[in-house]
Specification:
Keywords: Disulfide bond
Strand content: 35-45%
Domain CUB: 1-97
Order of helices and strands: EEEEEEE
Distance between the termini: 40 Å
Strand order of the largest sheet: 1-6-3-4
Radius of gyration: 14 Å
Structural class: mainly beta
Number of strands: 7
InterPro entries: CUB_dom (IPR000859), Sperma_CUB_dom_sf (IPR035914)
Largest sheet: 4 strands, antiparallel
Protein name: CUB domain-containing protein
CATH class: Mainly Beta
Helix content: under 10%
CATH topology: Jelly Rolls
CATH architecture: Sandwich
Length: 97
């Protein structure tokens, strides 16, 4: 395992899409331990439920964030997992509402 932070983030991108006219509800089920630092500078998940998805979304990086729910503005939600140290494990639940 890597013990020193990388200079750049490793990132994975996902899209969740509901049928037209519906929204997406995303619930954080689980997040890896060890990333809960201000600004999530070592790793976490970014969930873009805002109207303007070009902007930074809501970032989560603490196990205590489990249970948080977000509802999208539209029928599409970009999800970005990111880390500079070790690996980030995030479990999300989602559904159309």
């Amino acid at each position: 395992m890597r013990s020193q932070a990388r200079e750049d983030f490793k990132m994975c991108y996902y899209w969740i899409q509901a049928p037209a006219g519906k929204k997406v509800e995303v619930t954080i089920d689980k997040i890896s331990k060890g990333f809960a630092v201000d600004g999530c500078r070592y790793g976490g998940v970014e969930i873009k439920t805002n109207k303007d998805q070009r902007l930074t979304g809501y970032r989560f990086c603490a196990p205590e964030d489990a249970g948080k729910k977000l509802v999208s503005y539209s029928n599409r939600v970009p999800i970005v997992t990111f880390n500079r140290l070790y690996a980030t494990k995030v479990v999300l639940k989602y559904r159309a509402v």
